[in-house]
Design a protein that fits this description.
It is a single chain. This protein is α+β, with helices and mostly antiparallel strands. Helices cover about 20% and strands about 30% of the residues. Helix 6 packs parallel to helix 7.
Length: about 300
């Protein structure tokens, strides 16, 4: 590989017609296979290394976990890695690759683990891959959860757990890339993001974060907000999603109907939220609104 890249660059440099051609590489996320790639030699000849920062957990894992966590959660029993441990810990610190030569990967697919409801529990079953546009229709049957430590989304069901990246996860990765001064981000792969109505919420989120673009108009407001008390300390909210271009929904709560505080943010396509740890015999007011880069 070293000889191929070196000789290819030498050949291109010999002609004005090819001297501006560039080489890029897609690299594995960890030392398990990246140790066979001589990035120290290749760095001067490669425009950027695209790090495939996904598949940290799967059927091969003895426990469930996130597909592409931004940060490593100490609760991960296998310490299977994260985007940050790959980019910062491995490629930059251990291998010495400059930030501006690194590109962070974002998956447009997820994995469903059966017989589990959350990450980091024992697993002996096969995980199934689903595209993002296949996961969105499933959301009504699951509870959306944002992992504050790993900075990534997942869906918790009664008998399965789906790890995936939504618009909020994509935005967090983009902000990380900009904060570190990385070359940028890449995705696998574009068609998996397109919904039935032609909208592409993940690309919108990435475009907005990286380039300042994104959706040209705010999303339509949700309707038919309903609040159902299911216990003395829990109220379940439901609403109708009337938009195809939202990045997600924000939920506000109030004790007096006038002064509201945001209590949660969900991903796109979510139509419910359980508000827990409430005080009995207390009146609560709620409002829910859709948002994207153009507003809410």
């Amino acid at each position: 590989l070293n000889s191929l890249v070196f000789e290819l660059k030498e050949h291109w440099a010999s002609s004005p017609e090819t001297e501006n051609l560039q080489v890029s590489m897609a690299n594995p996320a960890s030392d398990w296979s990246a140790s066979f790639i001589d990035v120290e030699f290749l760095e001067p000849y490669v425009e950027w290394f695209g790090i495939m920062t996904y598949d940290y957990h799967g059927s091969w894992s003895d426990h469930t976990g996130h597909l592409s966590p931004l940060y490593l959660d100490p609760a991960d029993p296998g310490e299977c890695g994260s985007l940050d441990t790959s980019i910062e810990g491995y490629y930059h610190t251990q291998r010495g690759v400059a930030y501006e030569k690194l590109v962070a990967g974002i998956p447009f697919y997820g994995k469903k683990f059966p017989k589990a409801t959350e990450p980091y529990v024992p697993n002996k079953f096969r995980a199934t891959d689903y595209f993002y546009n296949e996961i969105v229709p499933m959301m009504d049957d699951y509870t959306y959860v944002w992992d504050e430590v790993a900075q990534v989304s997942y869906l918790s069901g009664s008998n399965s757990f789906i790890t995936f990246n939504d618009a909020a996860s994509c935005e967090a990765t983009c902000e990380y890339a900009k904060g570190k001064g990385l070359k940028g981000v890449m995705v696998w792969e574009l068609s998996q993001n397109e919904l039935d109505d032609g909208s592409q919420p993940l690309i919108d989120a990435i475009g907005e974060s990286m380039l300042g673009g994104g959706s040209p108009v705010p999303p339509a407001a949700p309707s038919n907000l309903a609040a159902t008390a299911v216990a003395s300390s829990q109220i379940n909210l439901t609403w109708d999603d009337n938009s195809s271009n939202e990045h997600g929904f924000r939920i506000d709560r109030s004790l007096d109907g006038s002064s509201f505080t945001q209590i949660a943010e969900t991903g796109a396509g979510v139509t419910g939220y359980p508000d827990t740890e409430l005080t009995a015999e207390t009146t609560y007011y709620y409002r829910v609104y859709a948002f994207n880069g153009a507003g809410d």
